[in-house]
Amino acid sequence: MTIAVLLIIPVLITVVVVLSSWRMFKDVTVMIWRAYFNLGKMVGPKAYPLIGTLWQVKTNSCDLTYQLLNWASTYAYYDGSTGLVKGWIGPIPLVLVLKPENVKKLLESNTLITKAEQYGKLADTNEKWFGRRKMLTPAFHFNVLKDYQEIFSKEAQVIMVDLLEGFADTGREVDLFPYVKRCALDVICETAMSTQMNAQMGKNSEYVKAVARLSDLVFLFIRSPWLWFKPVCYGCGLGFEFDRLVKMTTDFTRQANRRQSLIDEGRMDESEIANSKKKISFLDLMLLTQKKNALSDEDIREEVDTFMFEGHDTTSSSMGWSIWLIGQYPEYQAKVHEEMDAVFGDDDREPSEADLKKCVYLEKCIKESLRLCPPVPFFARRLTHDVVMDGFTIPKDVTAAILPMGSHRDPEQWEQPNIFYPDHFEPEAVAKRHPFAYIPFSAGPRNCIGQKFALAEEKTVLSYFFRKYRVEPTTPLPGNRFVPELILKPEDGVTCHLFKRVRAW
Ligand code: HEM
């Protein structure tokens, strides 16, 4: 009796699991067969049945980034290449799309906007996305962004003036990366939730650690197909750790919910928000339009969490790389200093909109840093229908991955593909290039909603930094490898010697 029960239970469980996942199983099998036949001639690293290309994939995330770059240059950057590279994550096909013509086809489409499953818990559905995107657009209206300028400046001055000053001219090395990161976190917290995080002053360090660990975990989930199976993911404890950290960060967001005060203040419509003189955070915006957009409290929390994640790790990575790269080239740093002196003289004022417009060279350096070290090094779409590219029919349900860090080094598009060269952003050079050759913020309907915000924040913070300091990185070129913890970070941080400037105005 006992043995019979012991045998029957696993069989029953297997039958239930197979039946419940039969549809998914059927769809995936059809997709795999179609990919196998349609993409047979597409170039890519050697794959074997079941394990696919995984036998070649580096387990160290840093090595993996360089391996992807290596695949891009081996399989995509030669004359006559389509720039399409096939890989297999175990038995699941993946196509890397590297040439701008094909990137355009993918990103401009209004139907191919579904994020890939590999995003796991960070993915959402199309229906949800359409509504949210429409609702959030006013929060990035030009007039609203102007209000955030004050917050950018306040937080920038806190790190530059109060915290870094102690390192200048002392011969002591300082890693600027955590400083820039906490500054970006304080900025996003105040703009997204009207809440003072004060990470720069050492507050809320648990939240800061949780956010860092969550991005590690998401990246681990993306590159480890065995963790896509819930029993494995929870069995090894990582699923529970992920859930615990998500709960911790979302509890923080919940506490910041200023619902009552907004209800008391009354509700506005979207045009009033865009023209409002009052500072409106993203959270305010959602609470103000909650009824109209039929949002639950949980929807609002989710959306604010997205901002918290997308909005600080990316900008801090970009600012960190920019300082490190500018510091490597004294001639470029001198040009930035010259520009700072011409725009601000010896004034420590908050940059006005006109000031920021004049920081043209600084902007070129930031853009060039986003080219070489794009904070979002890759992103993916699950094809919702068959797509024909360069004679290949890429089947529905296959994941197409865009690799800005690879596309941004295409020798057909860039004069100095592997070198920091701000002149890539001279207007004549930009005009000659394919518009989809440069995609740090993605492009098309699902592009980064926060790109203007990001550039304004970065220009403000870096304008304070370079007004005041000269920097000499202690890790020379070509050191500092990329660590892709979902967002691309410098392996050795941004370790530097700082020198106070005597301004030559
Ligand atoms: C240098 C800084 C930034 C970079 C390089 C960057 C890059 C990107 C990229 C590549 C995507 C598309 C990802 C995909 O399709 O899977 C994206 C989406 C997004 N970004 Fe950014 N981002 C930056 C800053 C920001 C900031 C400051 C915010 C908010 C304040 C933000 C909010 C978002 C949101 C909400 C999305 C999702 C848009 C959608 O799906 O409609 N980003 N970002």
Automatic annotation (TrEMBL):
<feature type="binding site" description="axial binding residue">
    <location>
        <position position="448"/>
    </location>
    <ligand>
        <name>heme</name>
    </ligand>
</feature>
<keyword id="KW-0349">Heme</keyword>
<dbReference type="Pfam" id="PF00067">
    <property type="entry name" value="p450"/>
</dbReference>
<comment type="similarity">
    <text>Belongs to the cytochrome P450 family.</text>
</comment>
<dbReference type="InterPro" id="IPR017972">
    <property type="entry name" value="Cyt_P450_CS"/>
</dbReference>
<dbReference type="InterPro" id="IPR001128">
    <property type="entry name" value="Cyt_P450"/>
</dbReference>
<dbReference type="GO" id="GO:0004497">
    <property type="term" value="F:monooxygenase activity"/>
</dbReference>
<dbReference type="GO" id="GO:0005506">
    <property type="term" value="F:iron ion binding"/>
</dbReference>
<dbReference type="InterPro" id="IPR002401">
    <property type="entry name" value="Cyt_P450_E_grp-I"/>
</dbReference>
<protein>
    <submittedName>
        <fullName>Cytochrome P450</fullName>
    </submittedName>
</protein>
<keyword id="KW-0408">Iron</keyword>
<keyword id="KW-0560">Oxidoreductase</keyword>
<keyword id="KW-0503">Monooxygenase</keyword>
<dbReference type="GO" id="GO:0020037">
    <property type="term" value="F:heme binding"/>
</dbReference>
<keyword id="KW-0479">Metal-binding</keyword>
<dbReference type="InterPro" id="IPR036396">
    <property type="entry name" value="Cyt_P450_sf"/>
</dbReference>
<dbReference type="GO" id="GO:0016705">
    <property type="term" value="F:oxidoreductase activity, acting on paired donors, with incorporation or reduction of molecular oxygen"/>
</dbReference>
<dbReference type="InterPro" id="IPR050196">
    <property type="entry name" value="Cytochrome_P450_Monoox"/>
</dbReference>
